[in-house]
């Protein structure tokens, strides 16, 4: 027999493909947040891994996945800004969070050396009012 039987090779590759397809979504770990909805287009991605600042519903600040006290946030951000080539940072805040807290963290980001702040939202578009949240103009929807 002068031919190579590729059937076992194809079987192994298909099994590996299925294993990686099932395992890949489980590898993304983050802070669980309910992001606000927006119709804005996504930002382009840099070569460097993006720095992500997360704010949960209680107002706790996370740099990537590590919790950071708000008092130490500016010093932490300055150290990160010195080590990074890009000043881009993504801010993820829970939709239930007060806007004043988001503004405080944005001010800390600016003081920490990050001028290019991207706000992360759900790409599904504006809320349809079914959840009872306020409409964009401030008036509650029926």
Describe what you observe in this structure.
- The chain is α/β, with parallel strands linked by helices.
- The protein has a single domain, classed as 2-Layer Sandwich (Nucleotidyltransferase, domain 5), CATH 3.30.420.270.
- 29% of the residues lie in helices and 15% in strands.
- It contains three helices and five strands.
- A five-stranded mixed sheet has the order 3-2-1-4-5, with helices on one face.
- Strand 4 (88-93), helix 3 and strand 5 form a beta-alpha-beta unit.
- It is elongated, with a radius of gyration of 21 Å.
Largest sheet: 5 strands, mixed
Helical fraction: 25-40%
Shape verdict:
elongated
The assigned structural class equals alpha/beta
Radius of gyration: 21 Å
What is the topology, as strand order, of the major beta sheet? 3-2-1-4-5
Cα separation of the termini: 76 Å
* E-strand count: 5
Q: Please, what is the average pLDDT? A: 78
CATH topology: Nucleotidyltransferase, domain 5
Count of spatially separate domains: 1
Instruction: Note poorly predicted spans.
Output: 130-142
Could you spell the SSE succession in H and E letters? HEEEHEHE
Number of helices: 3
CATH architectural arrangement: 2-Layer Sandwich
CATH top level class name: Alpha Beta
How big a fraction of the residues is strand? 15-25%
